[in-house]
Each structure stands twice: as structure tokens, then as C-alpha cells.
Model the fold of this input.
Amino acid sequence: MTKNTISPHYHRIQRSSGWSALNILDLWKYRDLFFILAMRDVKLRYRQTALGVTWVILQPILTSGIFAVIFGLLAELPSDDSPYLLFAFAGTLPWTLFAQSLQRAGGSLVSGREMISKVYFPRLILPISSSFSVVVDFLVGLASISVLFLIYKEPLTWNLLAIPGLVLVNLLIAVGVSFWISAFSVHYRDFIYALPFLVQAWMYASPVAYATSIVPEKWVALYSLNPMVGVIEGFRWSLLGQGEFPWISFGISIAMGLVIFLFGALVFRRIERGFADVI
Amino acid sequence: MAYPAISIQEMSKVYRIDPATGGAASRTLQEDLVDFARRPLRRSASSRKQEIWALRDVSFDVQEGEVIGLIGRNGAGKSTLLKVLSRITEPTSGYADINGRVGALLEVGTGFHTELTGRENIYLSGAILGMRRSEIERKFDQIVEFSGVSQYIETPVKRYSSGMAVRLAFAVAAHLDPEILLVDEVLAVGDASFQKKSLGKMSEVAESGRTVIFVSHNMGAIKNLCTRAILLDGGEVLADGDVNSVVQQYLVSSSENGEWHTEIAERTDRQGSGKLRFTGFQLLGLQESVVDAAVAGESIDFALSYRRSSDTFQSARIMIWLRDAFTKGLLRFGTDLTGQDFESLPQEGRIICHVPRFSLRSGRYYIDLGADVDGVKADRVIRAVTLDVMGGDYYGSGKIPTHPNDGDVLCDHEWTVEIIEE
Done:
């Protein structure tokens, strides 16, 4: 019995040559897996409920508190007329989203190796879904910052409406970077150990604990190449409701984010074909 | 124009193994940097890598509705072929055209997470296997019913017994509805009654007109389910045709490519003084033909090659243990048991243990080898080889115990009745 038609599922299996296309169609077919994996990560994190949520709230508050004491109180750095705690929190919040999704997505291939060696699915789903699972943490953090604003009697403005767009660009950069990290971590297992250091160095190169205004004039151009600068400044503008929207640095963020994301995805796809053999 | 469901053309797969890292392919960045610092001009690791051909010029077509058994020894390339066909890994050269939706069951329970409930795991595992959410929703009740764990469906899987977890995992996989199904040895999990249920589900799939490629060491299952079999050896197709003749060819491989388990000589995890070391193992059937499996009720010879040190000795004792998968000892053969300890042995040679009627039922067993010289442990090789036993007609009645609790050992017996007079 032979089939007289070509099935819609027809495909040819062969060595993919060079920089294979991103295969968006394949990703779309597996969108349910993406949601289920992201939900799995969220559920697992919040299952031990009390501890899970507490940490998600406490971590950025404590970090911002430390920044407020060291940079605001001791070093007396400027905070653009906002309470330093709020100022630091407005930087820590997007940074935590970024750093957490790097951490989770960076290790996602290694921790999902059982799946990779036993089942086919678009491997890109693993880092992407791990990144998105952090959004829930971000929302919890956003809720807690609103409480802080009430305590400080600082007004929230319509600038808040920019947050979804800011989060999107933030994730674009995070997912893009994590493509590189996760792909390399498969071949170089010790790459994961270098990650916390990388994240920390990157944080000090971004205006998380301090304001961009303290960066010396001649360094500003170079400094702005860091795509997180625009994102964090955008968050400050949105949450603290002061000054102008940082159009230039945010534009750089979007451009850099797209470049990192697209090249990251291509590199990932290039290395991907050997994952199951190596992992 | 008719299209086959699967058409494989001269497909090869090469693995590069780096002997320096003991075969592990992933390296640390540190290692590569150090390598590069030492020999910046040489191409670092790649020059030292060995090539292993897991598949070599494999070509065959599978028509829609065919159920094909893929057989061969461990390392013959069966699993690699399934991995390539299910797109887990890419072929090095050649191609395969797949005309239909593929479902692969290479291992049950992939992606299961023990912290999640049964319900959550059904969705997770189903999605990983390629099911849409709506599809899982539609089949949810059937899956739960098949698994038989309905009352624990909201309980985290970590509280399940391993049997329950496997049943649930298989239930999800069994409800995957592909046009082409690739199955690798998944039936080897769970207890015998569950295996039977899985086999039943498999034959249901096979009879429903779907295309199936089925890898198994269980020749009984292969013969039951498949009409055609393909024998792989060293990554190449050795035989392709009617299931009975190919299985026969597999069981009675000719002596030149019969399996001498010489890897035993390389084992370093052995114990003993080394005054006598096993260097190889072979199974011999009738007329010294080399076979890959024993058959219950028929004669089998265990041939052990060895090398001994030049020291003189008084007595040498050779022992063979047959164990089940849980390392429980089932049988021991020994020169001490038959009173045949050796008083002299050539420096190198082959010792044969002849079993006139092999008495374990079909299944997979493990062989440990042991030698004592002058009462001192000289060599112990744990799990030296696996022993596959085919079901045979041990009792001459065509019957053999099948229930999991019937035990693995067969023993001649007769029944009589006597009248008790008051």
C-alpha cells in the first residue's frame, strides 16, 4: 500500500548546510510546548509558595536597599531628585528581569539535555521559554514597587504605560544574549560558571545602582552601546515619571537587541545540530 | 505516482570521539584555551579525534502501513537510525524523505518532572512529544484511563511508585497519533503485565494501518508485530526482508562475524590478582555455530578465552553467574560444582562450559565471570556480557510460564497421582 499524495508533514532529513534558516514555521508549530514549558518553570518556582514569592519580592528590595546605602548615603551619588531607594529599585527591577532570564536561559539546554537527546523539538524553545518564565517574577516585583511608591507618597504617572514595550525590548536583549550563552554552554560546560561574573560586570556597566549622569562625557557614547542602558533609563522614566524619555539610548537598545537576537538565533541554529551528539 | 512513507538514501552518520577526553564530546573552555596556549599552531582537539561510523550508506524504503522490525546487536546503529529519523540528530551524509507526521517513542517519560502533578505532566510530556494542547485535552480522559492512575492525577509524580509513573508516561506516548511511529525498546520498561499491555497497544497501532519502525531485542515481539525486518550490523544494512528469515539470520550469525566479546579484555573495573584473566566470551549453539542468544530448552556453550600468568598453580576454578536485571543471581555454573577444577591450563586458551538444556525463560540476563587460582580470587568481571534468551519449547509441550511471578528458571518435572486408601 503506497500513498498517492505527499503529506502536509512531508520533510527531508539531511545535514543542514551552513547558516540554516530560522525555521519560524517549526517554532510556531511548537508554540504550545513553549507555553507549557514556561508555565512549568513558573509553577516549579512558586510551588513552595511562601518561600518562592518572598524571595522574588525580597531580592530586588534588599539589593536596592544596599545600593541606596552605599551609593546614595555613603557615596552621595545623585538620584535625579527621587528617593535613592526608589531610584535604585527602578533600575534593579529591569536588571533582575534581565539577569534572571540570562541565568535560567543560559543553563536551559544543559538542564534539558534529557529532552534534547530523546525528542525532537525546536531547541530555541528552551532558552526562550526559560526567559519568559521570569516575567512572572517581574510582575510580582512591579506590584511590590507600587507599594513602595505608596509608602514614599511618590505619584505614579501615565509613563507607566510604556512598561510593556520596555519589557519586550528587555526580553529581546536577554533572549538574544542567552542564545549565545546557552549554545556555548553545551560545548563548554564551564561556561556556566563564568556567567555570574559576566552578569555582575555587566550590571556595573549599566545604570542600575547609579544614574547615567555620573558617567564622564567622553565615555557616554561608548557607554550607550550597552543595550541595557536605554532599557534601564526607560524604566526610570516610566516609574519615576521625571525628565525626558531617553529616545537615543533606547533606540540603540532596540537596534542592539535586534542584532544580538538575530545573530544569536543564527549561531544557535548553527551549533544546534550537534547538540544531541554532544550533550 | 506513489510515495513511500519513508525513503532513506545512502544515509551515514559519523561520530567523532576524542580519545583524550575518554570519549566525552563536551569539553571545558579552560581545556581548549590551555590546548590552544600549548600548541597555538596545531588544530587543537580535532586532529586527535577518532571517527566512528554509526551508520554507513543505509538505504531502504518503507511503504505506508508497513511494520518493520529493526534488529541488530548493541551498537549496530539501530538507535542512531531512529534518532536521525526523528530529527534528534542530523545525518552526516545522505538523506531521508519522510512523508507523514512522525511520532517517536525513544524513551517513555521524557520531560516528566517529579514535582508536578500527574495532570501537569500529561500536558508537559504530550507537548514535548509534539501534541497540540487541544489534542491533549481531547485525549486526556483516555490517557488517564489507560494509565490506571486516575485517583492520583492531582498528586505530584514524586509520590507515585515507579510503576505508576511509567504507566502514566507510556499512556501519554501511546496516545500520540502519528502516521509514522518510531519505537525504541520502550516496551522493555515496567513489569511483565504492563509490557504485555504495551505490546497490545503496539499491535493495535500496527494493525491500524500506520507505518511503524520498531527496535527491540525481543525477537518474540518482533516476530509478532512485524512483517519485515532489517538487520543492522556495524551501521550497515546486513539483511532486509521477511521477518522470519532475517531474525533467523540474526540469531545464527556466521562465525566470522559472530560476536567475540573481546571488550572484556579491556575492562579495567575488574577484581582479582590477575593470575588468570578472561579475554573474551562467545556463545556457541549447535555444531559450534556462533549465536547471539540462547534458546530455552536447547543446548548452549559458553566459550571463555583467557590468558594466564606463567606462575605455576595447583588448581583453577572457573565460574559463570547468570543474573537478572536487578543483579539477583539466578544460576551459577562452576568447575567446583561439577568437580572439574583445572589442575593445569595452557598459557592461553578457551574454556567451554556446555549446558545441554538451557533452563532460563526468555528475557535478558547478565553474565558475571569469575576465576579463582589456588583458592585466591584471580579475576571477576561483573556484567561481562548480556545474555539474551529466546523463548523455546523447554517442556516439549509448547508451553512456558509467562506470568511475571512465575520465576525465570525452568526445571524438568512430571506429575502423577496416587490413590489414598483409607
User: Anything to note?
Assistant: Chain A has a mean pLDDT of 84. The CA atoms of residues 170 and 231 of chain A lie 6 Å apart. Chain A has one domain: 26-278. The first strand of chain A starts at residue 11 and ends at 14.
